[in-house]
Specification:
It is built from 12 helices and 10 strands. By secondary structure, the chain is of the alpha/beta class.
């Protein structure tokens, strides 16, 4: 794929009023989600669930792409059509999670570094053959007593940069995701400082690894108080501080930024995105790449009757896509909630 194609794909991922649905849960993570609603985590249930999500009618009205897991990118609908074909035929870009998850960072108790670089060139080439247009690598930054360290931040940035360079070599747009976790009792200012340091390190590493920003998408966490922090920031504060942080650390050459939901409620994830877009114009399109905030309501309904509620669950997916698509334009209102 040429440089122009990378830029074109990256721009298509953040087309006006569209965002990404993240359905790239590993088998261990989707088991946790299924356990929560009493569904057996069999290969067939995982396939059926992803089919429900991906075959939602008119999904591409507000969804530009979907991030898949290694098992999912090889699966097909009940009728035998590969998911990637269904997606491409319906104007949805197939994406693929390629990291192998966080592992403890030796010498830095409590900190993690994402693994998965070994053999990544070959895996990316295979995913490209299977139809993947973009890829995702998630780094996890924990906030706690004396953490994160500069070493932990830089180790994750270095891995993200090596991954991103390999993606572009394979003609795949890298979605770089340094997630600063909401776990903990830290306040929003601490999250701001950690997020800013993380992004500065990341963009320094991308520069040093010759990664073309015009063909890269940032998947960011919002600047927000920790889940156990007594002092909750207002939605306006979350939106303002997130924007200030991004503007201070993210080059304007980037075609777009999409957010993860990270454990925020559906309402908060949508409201925060909407507010940030209302505060624009911003240097980049700001959209969504939500996992839980796109899926949780639909999963709950589907779990009550896998066959009988298939279409009803899809209407919830369509509605969450529409809400978040409108939030990406700053035109969401609370009465749009299903
Ligand atoms: P959440 O929106 O559930 O945080 O998931 C997004 C994602 O892909 C995390 O890597």
């Amino acid at each position: 794929m040429s440089i122009e194609n990378l830029e074109e794909t990256a721009r298509a991922m953040v087309a006006a009023g569209k965002g990404i649905i993240a359905i790239d849960e590993s088998n261990a993570t989707i088991k946790k989600r299924f356990d929560g609603v009493g569904i057996d985590c069999t290969e067939e249930n995982r396939r059926a669930y992803r089919e429900m999500l991906l075959t939602t009618a008119n999904l591409s009205d507000h969804i530009s792409g979907a991030i898949l897991y290694d098992e999912t990118i090889r699966q097909s609908t009940r009728a035998g059509v590969p998911f990637t074909k269904v997606m491409l035929d319906n104007g949805i870009l197939p994406g693929i999670k390629v990291d192998k998850g966080p592992q403890p960072l030796a010498g830095f108790p409590g900190e993690v570094v994402t693994e998965g670089l070994d053999g990544l060139r070959d895996r990316l080439n295979e995913y490209a053959r299977l139809g993947a247009k973009f890829a995702k690598w998630r780094a996890v930054i924990n906030i706690g007593e004396d953490m994160p360290s500069a070493t932990g931040i830089d180790a994750n940035a270095h891995a993200l940069a090596r991954y991103a360079a390999l993606c572009q070599e394979a003609g795949i747009v890298p979605m770089v995701e340094p997630e600063v976790l909401m776990d903990g009792n830290h306040d929003i200012d601490t999250c701001y400082d950690v997020t800013e340091a993380t992004l500065r390190s990341l963009f320094g590493a991308l520069y040093e690894h010759n990664v073309m920003l015009e063909g890269t998408i940032l998947k960011a966490s919002m600047v927000i108080h920790g889940k156990d922090c007594a002092e909750k920031a207002s939605p306006e504060e979350v939106a303002e501080l997130t924007l200030r942080c991004l503007k201070s650390a993210v080059p304007s050459a980037l075609p777009g930024i999409v957010f993860l939901s990270g454990g925020q409620s559906d309402l908060d994830a949508t409201r925060h995105l909407n507010l940030m877009n209302q505060l624009g114009p911003n240097p980049w399109p700001l959209s969504f790449s939500y996992g839980r905030a796109m899926q949780s309501a639909a999963l709950k309904l589907w779990s009550q009757d896998l066959v009988g509620n298939f279409a009803k669950a899809q209407s919830i997916v369509a509605s969450r896509a529409r809400e978040n698509g409108m939030a990406a334009l700053g035109r969401w209102t609370p009465d749009m909630a299903a």
